[in-house]
Design a protein that fits this description.
Length: 108
């Protein structure tokens, strides 16, 4: 198996009625934002985040955070696409790169 097959394997195992991790109720369990919402739902401390597919959706969040900020895709594996950005301009450039490119694992 591989990271790219996790979501499909979850769905197939449910349909086939075999032992499974099942379908995660909050969404795709590989999605970093979904993981953070699950952590918060248990009452644990989690990262502050902004989620969006356009810079307009996240720019206000980035502007109010102290630098550096981490910009990363919600679907990927390991450190693929992850960058520590020290300025708003650097964060915007990396965000744009992520939105305009295909990751090794994921649709971003």
């Amino acid at each position: 198996g591989a990271e790219t097959g996790v979501t499909l394997a979850d769905k197939l195992s449910l349909e086939l009625g075999v032992r499974s991790n099942g379908i995660f109720p909050l969404g795709d369990r590989r999605n970093k934002s979904v993981q953070q919402r699950a952590v918060k739902a248990t009452g644990l401390r989690a990262v502050r985040e902004a989620l969006g597919t356009t810079w307009t959706e996240v720019k206000d969040f980035v502007a109010t955070e102290s630098m550096p900020v981490v910009v990363k895709p919600v679907e990927s594996a390991g450190s693929d696409g992850v960058k520590l950005c020290h300025t708003v301009e650097e964060a915007k450039a990396h965000f744009t790169l992520l939105m305009e490119s295909q990751r090794k694992c994921g649709a971003q």
